[in-house]
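Quick start: read one record
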Amino acid sequence: MEAARMADAYGLMPGHAVQQSDAEQAYTQAWFQGEDTWVCLPRDQWPQAWIDADMQDPVCPLVLALYGHPDSGTDWERHSHDAVVSAGYVPVPNWPSCFWHPELKLFLVIYVDDFKLSGPSDKLQEGWDLIQSKLKIEPPGPLGLYLGCKHVESTKTLPGTATTVRVMQNDMEEFLRSCVERYRE
């Protein structure tokens, strides 16, 4: 959360912005690297040859990380880390899943499959293009709902001055309401 807020603060600097994107089927972009694991596929995913052979409960090796497997998160984290590093992003020391692009002056935060990128507005698209050259992500857009928190950007006038600044409000009302409703259920 602190890294995400740091990205927000950096994105509020003059001439800067902050955007977000999600990875498409994140885990299945990564090769599975855990213990050999065999899985049953749902029948609607069987190759035609299995159906024609009238197979009964066939299994196959798990080759891509799969949601629900305890090792898949680690495989995706390693994969996404290596991908953004190969695209020119540098890991921030002692701050896992945070990256800096030295030429573009962009700050990237990855939380599971959520990406937040902030920095000079005119460099954001180039930064996203670098990421998209290595990972399948949805088209980036303005900051909205990120980790259950709605981000609302506005401007405020500093008291006693004519100076206006951009501010970011984190609105968690909808999320908290849904938590209370779930609790009451």
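Residues 20 and 116 are 4 Å apart (CA to CA).
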